[in-house]
């Protein structure tokens, strides 16, 4: 997660935010490690073992599979390939299943055409007849929402492909709506359809979602990205589908509608984290309001200690170009400064011409932005809002982050069974990496969702002397940090362990010197 060999300071001596910003220098090298997780969408451009290995070595932490496309057979093959590529990786790689959700999409084109051109001012028929799903043309396209003619009316707008194409409804028939093309362009296959201001009567969890979720449980995925979550009920229904066998899978709620923003507090409480899915959100609410929703959702997740992901169009131009725009670089950096745990690449890696290059640029932007992040201010504000008294483990985590800042430690070494203490440490955004050492591979993979965590899977079995076993795991984490180049002999370290074997006993923090 934190590949780099640069040398730089990870501690700021500034006392105010403005003095911290005044002290930034473009000539300084970025900090040694990248703390922000990077999620990459896997698609035709990067689904082979060789490319996936390059992406893992470049810094991909979580591989995302978009279940709006593809068959179970194809996704099973991709999961197998990802695991093969990650076999000898220096860190575990998580796999996330992104549900289709209650979304509406267009169909495929006749004669296997990849796209058609929609011209401004012309008429187009949007059909809900299943016979048109694979036979669309430039004048007759398909939408997979049967009740479309019932919920729109003349004058309603239909947006396609993240709003790039817009249609105005002229009239409605039993199985189709007749529209005028307001803003045309090239329309590809299986593009998203949005109906802003229209009440859509789709279930929170569709029959396809249920099949996909059960498939994900069988395949052992680590994370579910739940699409179009409008309230906590959607999360509860997904948990019911996952059942006992899938109860350990993280559920990340994708907030991409006005209802989702309005009900964000209950969604954050019910879920394991949130994704700010700006594509559909920017159609459902005014585009100029998206940044407000992003900052608000990130702040609420930071206060709740839940991971938050920023997604959509982060390096969009790199689908076809080798370098991003300056605005895209600033967008990624500002998401990091807002406090995200992870950033995500979509089409850039799934179908782009430069998947590895896009990931490398994302990696470098995150490191630069983290150097400008004022950790002390963020830590103090989180402490101010933390409900008192805190429990044993929570108190230990706060003390560890505080000690890291005070003694200028270079890393936190944390022995974890369930990941709870690691998540608490990440919540307070220490300025250094948190190396978590765990015997649980699943926990190690899922911890990639949390900012600053460098998860290490410890493969050795337990030994009888518990204290010796603890010290061996601590040294294992130290050695990995030394191998990666951000721990050196004599460096101060913070070590967090339990006082006895098992989960729930973390209450010991030590300051040690790397040996």
The top-level CATH class of the largest domain is Alpha Beta
Shape: elongated
Q: How many individual helices?
A: 18
* Mean of residue pLDDT values: 94
Assembly classification = single chain
Strand order of the largest sheet: 1-2-3-13-14-15-16-17
| Overall number of structural domains | 3
- In CATH, the topology of the largest domain is named TIM Barrel
Largest sheet: 8 strands, parallel, barrel
Rg, nearest Å: 24 Å
CATH superfamily of the largest domain: Phosphoenolpyruvate-binding domains
Query: What is the percent of helical residues?
Result: 25-40%
Total strands: the figure is 22
Task: List segments where confidence is low: pLDDT < 50 over at least 5 consecutive residues.
Answer: 1-9
Structural class: alpha/beta
The proportion of strand residues reads 15-25%
For the termini, the CA-CA separation is 23 Å
Subunit structure: Homotetramer.
GO cellular component, one term: sarcomere
InterPro entries: Pyr_Knase, Pyrv/PenolPyrv_kinase-like_dom, Pyrv_kinase-like_dom_sf, Pyrv_Knase-like_insert_dom_sf, Pyrv_Knase_AS, Pyrv_Knase_brl, Pyrv_Knase_C, Pyrv_Knase_C_sf
Pfam family, one: PK_C
């Amino acid at each position: 997660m934190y590949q780099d060999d640069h040398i730089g300071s990870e501690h700021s001596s500034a006392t105010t935010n403005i003095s911290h910003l005044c002290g930034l220098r473009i000539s300084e090298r970025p900090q040694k490690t990248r703390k922000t997780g990077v999620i990459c969408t896997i698609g035709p451009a990067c689904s082979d073992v060789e490319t996936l290995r390059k992406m893992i070595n470049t810094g991909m932490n979580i591989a995302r599979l978009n279940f709006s496309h593809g068959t179970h057979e194809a996704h099973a093959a991709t999961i197998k390939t990802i695991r093969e590529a990650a076999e000898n990786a220096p860190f575990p790689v998580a796999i996330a299943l992104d549900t289709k959700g209650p979304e509406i999409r267009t169909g495929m084109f006749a004669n296997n055409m990849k796209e058609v051109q929609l011209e401004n001012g012309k008429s187009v028929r949007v059909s809900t007849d299943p016979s048109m799903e694979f036979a669309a043309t430039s004048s007759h396209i398909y939408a997979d929402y049967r009740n479309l003619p019932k919920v729109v009316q003349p004058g309603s707008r239909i947006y396609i492909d993240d709003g790039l194409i817009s249609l105005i409804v002229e009239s409605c028939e039993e199985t189709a709506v007749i529209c005028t093309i307001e803003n045309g362009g090239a329309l590809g296959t299986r593009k998203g359809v949005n109906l802003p201001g229209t009440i859509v009567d789709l279930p929170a969890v569709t029959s396809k979602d249920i099949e996909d979720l059960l498939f994900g449980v069988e395949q052992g995925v680590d994370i579910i990205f739940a699409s179009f979550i409008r309230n906590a009920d959607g999360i509860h229904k997904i948990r019911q589908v996952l059942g006992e066998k899938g109860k350990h899978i993280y559920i990340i709620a994708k907030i991409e509608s006005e209802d989702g923003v309005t009900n964000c507090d209950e969604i954050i409480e019910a879920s394991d984290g949130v994704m700010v899915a700006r594509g559909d959100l920017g159609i459902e609410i005014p585009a100029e309001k998206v940044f407000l929703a992003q900052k608000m959702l990130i702040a609420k997740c930071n206060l709740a200690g839940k991971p938050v992901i920023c997604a959509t169009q982060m390096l969009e131009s790199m689908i076809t170009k080798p370098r991003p725009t300056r605005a895209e670089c600033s967008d990624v950096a500002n998401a990091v400064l807002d406090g995200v745990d992870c950033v995500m690449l979509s089409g850039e890696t799934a179908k782009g011409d430069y998947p590895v290059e896009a990931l490398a640029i994302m990696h470098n932007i995150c490191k630069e932005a983290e150097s400008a992040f004022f950790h002390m201010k963020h830590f103090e504000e989180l402490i101010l809002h933390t409900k008192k008294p805190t429990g044993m483990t929570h108190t230990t985590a706060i003390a560890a982050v505080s000690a890291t800042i005070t003694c200028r430690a270079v890393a936190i070494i944390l022995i974890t069974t369930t990941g709870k203490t690691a998540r608490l440490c990440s919540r307070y955004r220490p300025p250094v990496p948190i190396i978590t050492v765990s015997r649980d591979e699943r926990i190690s993979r899922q911890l990639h969702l949390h900012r600053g965590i460098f998860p290490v899977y410890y493969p050795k079995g337990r030994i009888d002397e518990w204290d010796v076993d603890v010290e061996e795991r601590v040294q294992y984490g130290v050695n990995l940090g030394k191998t990666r180049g951000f721990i050196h002999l004599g460096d101060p370290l913070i070590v967090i362990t339990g006082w006895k074997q098992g989960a729930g006993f973390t209450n010991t923090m030590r300051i040690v010197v790397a040996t």
